[in-house]
Amino acid sequence: MATIPSILNSTSSSFLSHFPFSHSPLSSPSLFPHRKNHRNVVFPVKASGAAVLVEKSEAENVNRLKTTYNEKIIPLLMEEFSYTNKHQVPKVDKIVVNCGIGDAAQNAKGLEAAMNDLAKITGQRPIKTRARASVATFKIREGQPLGIAVTLRGNTMYSFLDRVVNLGLPRTRDFQGVNPNSFDGHGNYSIGVTDQSVFPEIRYDAIGKPRGMDICITTTAKTDQESQRLLALMGMPFREGGGPATIVRKKKLKSHHFDAKGKGGRK
Q1: Which residues of 74-94 are buried (b: 16+ CB within 10 A; e: fewer)?
Q2: What pLDDT score was predicted for residue 244?
Q3: 188-195 contacts: CB < 8 A, separation 24 or more?
Q4: Which residues of the chain have pLDDT under 70?
Q5: What gap in Å lies between CA 90 and CA 231, rounded to an integer?
Q6: Is the C-alpha dihedral spanning 66, 67, 72, 78 positive or negative?
Q7: Measured distance CA(99)–CA(256) in Å, rounded
Q8: This prediction's pTM
Q9: What Cα–Cα distance (Å) separates residue 238 from each residue in 175, 177, 183, 234?
Q10: Options 3.90.930.12, 3.30.70.260, 3.50.30.50, 3.30.1440.10; which CATH number does 61-233 get?
């Protein structure tokens, strides 16, 4: 009569014959030689180039424009506008970049190329803006893509604004400064770029058709004067003369000019 240990040994041998790797425990040093340092192991992740444009370690680095704002611009604005708290100092909240695609709406490759170009410039993948209603006059149907847009915040926003001020705008042909009258009355500022090839990320010979873009800078400033001063300290090259800080006085027309014209017409 077979004993209990012999039965267990026979069962174990038959089990191992079907599963030859089951005899090694999970804690075996031969399979996991670096088990003690498993927290320090870095697993490489391969992402698609169209979706991930900036490495996480690079995006987490503090931007130089953001550092300048925190260390230099905030004290200057507090002194000029007599703020009692640093949280009252205006700041850039977000930047929205819009780009019309034109004829590329009918071409899938052209639309994808426009999205890739804007992604290279801003560092973030844009979204498609679609028509809300159909317009037969312009041959537009509901849901048709009309443009692309991207909303930037945080370090990506500061990095893009830095490149616009120091790289994009100075490379514009016959550039004499941005218009200081493009504020909306609520502290927000808009810039129009006629050709996106002014950015070094875009090669001029690689683009088929020059495209422009609209850049809307949204700030927390309550007045246009505060917003203009904030952007000027950040390096925005405003054109001399005009602007919300300047009072524009219109010439007063002489009253007898209208009277003489009216009387002369009746005579």
Answers
A1: beebeeeeeeeeeeebbebee
A2: 61
A3: 188/216, 188/217, 188/218, 188/219, 188/227, 189/216, 189/217, 189/219, 189/227, 189/228, 189/231, 189/236, 190/214, 190/215, 190/216, 190/217, 191/164, 191/215, 191/217, 193/168
A4: 1-62, 103-106, 204-209, 242-267
A5: 10
A6: positive
A7: 50
A8: 0.66
A9: 11, 5, 12, 11
A10: 3.30.1440.10
Query: What pLDDT digit, counting tens, does each position of 239-252 carry?
Result: 887 666 543 333 44
3-class secondary structure per residue, the chain: CCCHHHHHHHHHHHHHHHCCCCCCCCCCCCCCCCHHHHHHCCCCCCCCCCCCCCCHHHHCCCCHHHHHHHHHHHHHHHHHCCCCCHHHCCCEEEEEEEEECHHHHHCHHHHHHHHHHHHHHHCCCCEEEECCCCECCCCECCCCEEEEEEEECHHHHHHHHHHHHHHHHHHCCCCCCECCCCECCCCCEEEEECCHHHCCCCCCCCCCCCCCEEEEEEECCCCHHHHHHHHHHCCCCECCCCCCCCCCCCCCCCHHHHHHHHHHHHC
Spell out the residues 6+ positions from residue 153 whose beta carbon is closer than 8 angstroms to its own: 93, 94, 95
* Residue 1 confidence (pLDDT): 53
**Residue ranges covered by each domain of the chain:** 61-233
pLDDT given at position 28: 42
Half-sphere exposure (Cβ direction) of 101: Cα atoms closer than 13 Å: 27
Identify residue 129 by its one-letter amino acid code: T
CA distances from 161 to 120, 158, 166, 190 (A): 14, 5, 9, 12
